[in-house]
Amino acid sequence: MSARILQVIDDIIGVQGRDVTPAILHALAAAGEIAGVDRSYVYRLEGADRMRNTHEWVATGITPVIEESQDLPANLLDIWREALDAGQPFEIADVRDLPDGSPERVILEGQGVQSLLIAPFLHGGRLAGFVGYDAVRRCRPFLPFEIRLLQSLAKAIGVVLDRAKAEAAAEAAKAALLAKRDRLKAMLAALPDMVVELDRDGRLVAFNEGADTSSFLTPSQFIGCRVDEALPPTLGQQFIQALARFDRDGRCDPFDYEITVNGKNRWHNATIARRSLDGREDGYFLIIRDFTERHHQQRRIARLGKIAELTSNMVIVTDAEARIEWVNPAFEQRSGWTLDEVRGHRPQDVFRSDRPHMEAQLKVSTAIAEGTPVQIEMLNRSRQGQEYWISMDIQPMHDESGRLDGFVAVHTDITDLKKTHHKELRDLRLAIEASRDGIALIGPGGAHGYMNSAYRDLFGIDGAEHALTIHWADLFPPDVPCAPREQDWHRLVARGNWRGSLKGVARDGRILPLELSATIRDDGSLLVIVRDMAERLRAEKEQALLLEKLHIAQRRETIAHVASEIAHDLNNVVAVVSNAATLLEAQCRERPDVLASVRRIKRAAHVAGDLVGGLGHLGRSNARPARQDLRALVAQGIDLLGSSRIEQHGIALSLPDTEQPVWADSTRLLQVVVNLALNACEADPERPARVRAAVLPGTEWQPARPPDLGTWSPGADHAVFRISDTGAGISPRARERLFEPYFTTKGKAGTGLGLPIVGTILRESGAALWLDSAPGQGTVATVAWPSVPIAPALPRPPAGGAPAKPPGRATADAGGVAPLAGMHILVVDDDADLADQLSEMLDARGAVALAITDPHEASALLNETPGLWSALLTDMHMPGMDGIGLSALAASLDPPVPAVVITTHPDRVPLPSPGIREVLGKPAAEADLIRALLRVSKRPAAQPEPSGQD
């Protein structure tokens, strides 16, 4: 038994760690089996008077009692306490030996105990607990050596329990220390401050990693460095000196400094504390706080304070009871009261006026009582009795808890503003009275409250008649046509304003066409502005009539242009027949029967020419040119485009200050302006082109090249206008055909007659057109119009070829003289048959004539050999280049070549024109043609024999 108990003791003594329960239970079981007991257990004393069963082993079949053995009174041990305190075991060989009824016997018998051995264990010389061994099934006396062995085991268990308790206490202390450290670490991490540890030499050894380093220098890169090495030199020396003061005096006041961190200036505050290591002083703690925002706030507060002192506005600071605590110098200067005189008083006691504004004062008192802001205007009086107006802005101030802490009031002197406002009101009243529009205020009941002079004049209301006596319905009765309708009033109420046209009734019964604008005011009254529309309606009617007249003229010009083209083509046919008959007449002189038929053909051709000449005048109105001001006509033409087109294209008009006279039929000139302006508006198919129109003084503008259309006389007086656009421009290919009839770049939207009609008007009016354009750069159209009538320089033969004098042959008799001998004549007509016949006729009269149908080919031939040609005989209307342009080219050569123009409408040739010496009607009589060629070549005519005429 001894060996076995000793082994148990040895096993339990060797147990390590806090949890020794398994080892104790194993020891109790082993001891119980070895000792032959039924129950073994451990009791521990808790405090001075309680004990409890902490461990228990029971043999098979034995009831555990550990549950009933908790929190028992320690006085149950009193009868054995003396022995136990001495560390002596005691034995109860038979429980029945205990006194009857004793608490000990009752408890033991209740647990079925027959024999008992208690072995105590001490701690620090005092009873800490005991190990008990119970015999339940039978009495079990214990031998002395058994008692000693079990006592030793109890001591061993006590040692193990004490050691476990000590280890648990150590671990708890360690855990508490760790928790404290973690709390400190968390606290430091939560602090916005940077805590830096320095050793005794001032070297950085540690820091709190939880701090936000964005506001500080990163300390990790300076571990092991002295503080003066980590900081800028001046700041480093400041820290070294502070550490020295701390070592000398045992303390150092916190100090502020400025430092650059991440490129930004920051303000820090540093505090120094002693660091202790193992109970001895060994280094320093630096607590660094970033107070940049507070520094800026303090600066702002200081500035605000300075501003409050320097501002011209009056500033008053009061407590929560509205008693004055501070005023700025501006207040003292304006009010005449010093701070010492008004401190503790309420502002309303300081400012008193003979004209108090009770409503304003009540509003201020209510706001102060409720602690709410208020803005108001009031009349104040200074200490010297001077009254002045202020705009008062009172704002409540609250402390950090949100409690009302006082008020700040800013007073702005608005006396001058009030004076200005009153002046503006006077000026406004004067402006309303001077307005040409009628202005009135109408009350909610319909009675007039005010009406200006224009309103009275418009309705014929006498100045002595009071506005309140006149009702709205008196001037706008519902039975008048176009009076305000019920839905108009509903719309006015819904929107707050209404504008439209209606009719009113003057006091004398006249019906007034009016434009009215009505607006509902805040007080429910109606502000009404009326304008007399009579003049505007008259102007609109005149404009409509003018526009209709312009449209009629445009249609006539279109008809005339088409008829002229047809007449031109028919006249060429008639001329071929007439010229052929003339040639045949010379060859049939010996055959009277044939000669009579030829002459009948000639007479028929002459009649046909007259008919064709009449066709050329179809649709054309008689122009009535007169002296006009070009400025008015151009402005009128732009206005005819309509307000929507003017707004869409931003059409701008520039006019000189002085009159620009032109000699023109106003309708025809308007046609030119409107056609060119419409072309400018439609110059870009992708977006609205911007259009500019301007009238230029003719004396300030000279062309750099001949005109593209019409006639330009450098010595004549002209007035000039120009229309430009920002459109797509004109391509070179389109420019070549721009003035051809029926050519258009607008597709089905265009007729192709606009510019040809413009060209006709310009030619017949002696005007000229220049077009400057390039693709993508817009177009500039410049028109020069004569300022005075241009008299024809040449006689105009009648249209249709009727001779100015009796026709005759230019030929001599059989042996006579050829009148055109030695002359070289260039014949140009786009009708090949007519050109050939004219050439043959001239050849028969002795000339050398060359017929050409292309005017461009003719111009090239003239340029190559100008000295060869005696005269140019040309048609007027030809594609690509007309007779005017070809004649002007011939006149510009060296030597110049004189020109004779043959046209269906000789009266439409603008004269004078460069190079044109004679103008003949189609078909031209042979004699007239020969005489004209002789005149332009300045050669004497041969005397032909007269030929018989029917």
TrEMBL record:
Its EC number is 2.7.13.3. It catalyses: ATP + protein L-histidine = ADP + protein N-phospho-L-histidine. Residues 824-937 form the Response regulatory domain. The keyword Kinase applies. CDD domains: HisKA (cd00082), PAS (cd00130). Residues 300-344 form the PAS domain. It comes from the Bacteria. Keywords: ATP-binding, Kinase, Nucleotide-binding, Phosphoprotein, Transferase, Two-component regulatory system. The keyword DNA repair does not apply. One of its GO terms (molecular function) is ATP binding. SUPFAM superfamilies: ATPase domain of HSP90 chaperone/DNA topoisomerase II/histidine kinase, CheY-like, GAF domain-like, PYP-like sensor domain (PAS domain). Residues 565-789 form the Histidine kinase domain. The modification 4-aspartylphosphate is found at residue 875. PROSITE patterns: HIS_KIN, PAC, PAS, RESPONSE_REGULATORY. Residues 372-426 form the PAC domain. This is histidine kinase. It comes from Aliigemmobacter aestuarii.
